[in-house]
Each structure stands twice: as C-alpha cells, then as structure tokens.
Amino acid sequence: MYKIAVIPGDGTGPEVTVEAVKVLKVAADKFNFKLDLTEFDFGGERYKKTGETLPDSAVEELRRFDAILLGAIGHPDVAPGILEKGILLKARFELDQYINLRPVKLYPGVETPLKDKGPDDVDFVVVRENTGDLYTGTGGFTMKGTPHEVAVQSAVYNRHQVDRCLTYAFEYARKYGKKTRGKGDKNTLALCGKTNVLTYIYDLWERAFNEMGEAQYADIEREYYHVDATCMWMVKNPEWFDVIVTGNMFGDIITDLGAMVQGGMGIAAGGNINPEGVSMFEPIGGSAPKYTGKGVINPLAAICAGQMMLATLGEEKAADAVEKAVMTVTGEKLESLQAGRMGYSTSEVGDLVAENIA
Length: 358
Ligand code: IPM
Ligand code: MN
Description:
By secondary structure, the protein is an alpha/beta fold. It has helices at 13-30, 44-50, 56-62, 82-94, 159-176, 201-216, 227-236, 248-261, 300-313, 316-332, 346-357, and strands at residues 2-9, 35-39, 67-72, 99-105, 123-129, 139-142, 150-153, 187-193, 220-226, 243-246, 269-273, 279-283.
C-alpha cells in the first residue's frame, strides 16, 4: 500500500492528473499493490481565494506520504513567481528533493524535429541538481528605479549539494547506463558546465566530479561538455548522451530542449527526487491555461510522471508495463503528441494506455 498525495494544480493539470491516476490504478490492480490517494487543492484558485500557496502545515503533511504526484502550477491571473516559488519550489526545497531527474527518450511513432533520429538515438537522462544555484543564491537591488539601478543574483553551491547530486548521478549511470554510449566500453556520465566562464561554480563541480569519479567510480567513463555545446550536441548527436549531470539553472534550460527533442511537452516527465525522503513527480510542461477544460491536452507526460513514480517506489514491473503501454499508444495510435491533434481526447488517450496495461 502506497500513500500518494495528488496535487492536480492549475489549468490543464487536473485533466492530465485524472488520466495518470486512471493508469496508476490499472497498474496497481494488475501488479498487486494498492494506492491510497489523497487530493490537495494547492494552486492558483486556492491562492486567489485564501492568499495561501503551500502552507508550512501542508509541507509537514506531505512528509508523511510515500510520493507526490503533481499536475501543473501556474495561473494566468497570478503574477509570475508567486505560485512557482510558493508551491513548486517550496515543495522541492522543503522536502529536500535534491535531484530533478528528467529522461529524454523518443518513443516509437513520435515526431521529433530531428528527422533522421529514432528511438535508439534519443534515450538519455538529465540529472539536474534541484536545490541550489541561481535558484537559492542571494541577491538584491540597490538604487532601484533609478537609471543607476543595480540588480545582483548570485549562483551558490556548496560541496555537500554538489557531492550528493554527483553520487546520485554516478550510481544512476552504474545501474541504468548503456555501454553503447560514449567512447569506450564503459557506462558514461557527462558533466554539463561552463568552466570557461563560471570559473568558481563549475570549477567546484568539475573537481568534485573528477575526485569522486577517480576514487569511487573507476567503472564509469567521465565526459565534460560546456552547456552551450551540450545544447548543440543534444540536437545534432543526441546518441552521444546517456546520463548528463548538471546544476539547477543549466538543468532547467537543457531539459526544455530535451523535451522538444523527445517530441514536446506532451510526453516529457520529471521526478523531484529525495532518495531518502518524499519525492514528487510532474509533467515538465506548464498548466497550458488556453487548453483548460477542452479535453484536448495530452496526458502522456502526466502518465509518464506516474510511471517514474512507480519505478522510484520500487514497482519496476508496473513501471515497465506503463512505459510499454505508452510506447504502444505512441507507436500505433496517436496521430501527434500535440494538444488537439492526437486523434483522441485526453481521456481517450488515458483509456488507451490503461487498456494496454490491463
Ligand atoms: C521546471 C520549471 C520551474 C523551474 C519553474 C516553474 C519554477 O521551469 O520545473 O523546469 O524553473 O524549475
Ligand atoms: Mn523549466
């Protein structure tokens, strides 16, 4: 029995979450485990009514769950930053979900802008550090509103944050890596940084990466790419990548690129992972307000978030069954992954995946 907190959130979040829950229930029946779901209404509507984002008491409540499934956060009537910082980032930081795990995998039948690349070429994962960098560095204004206004926002990392992220990434590469990638016959971990300009932050990352790799992970091949080059190769030669580890800001940016490479926001999912605590799974895309309530949004990203949740809970067989069902649906059914062009409604896509598991 798993206790799962469900936060459908804003916009199309609730519609896609319903489909993810539908699929999870079928997988639970088939693979003999139970889900005890509790829904929470955090999001833009609640904020508008009560002024509350994610209260401290809710964080304490969420700690008692085995995992959290999140739809989307973001409301057109609420100023940017309030819900993002108040709900999403607060959950990530308070629950110390220090890894943001984002697979980039092209499923059969899915159109990618990289026309001549197929599912064998696009199959890597980004391990994004999820607690530091520009996201939590300090900053401020001086002379605000004057022509001489100064704004500062600092990128901050400590060795502990870097080391625990690298440990996760090396372990992930050891466990799930593919020897067919990289240059040698070992599994490969690539560090994405900017050592030529960010000579403090990524110097720390690079030293920690090499020290840990030499001392504990001689079986893993180490590679290094600057972030701008990473973007270039993700499009030109995605088959080079297997496991990429990077800081929070670069991880944010390259995983939106990754989402497009794998066919768009309709399919891209991620996990905010605390390996020792409560993790939270979400589609990478936003709340897509313009599609709200129309039944046209693609629920596969939310379903894939559910699949990552099952894998992290240790239900590997159920997770594999969900992924295979998603592949069958992309390969044999959907006309496109884009909202309104799937050839099916949101709930029909959920049904198709559910049928394929059952
Ligand atoms: C993401 C999002 C968030 C981030 C925003 C909404 C705060 O872009 O999950 O990638 O920057 O991490
Ligand atoms: Mn992002």
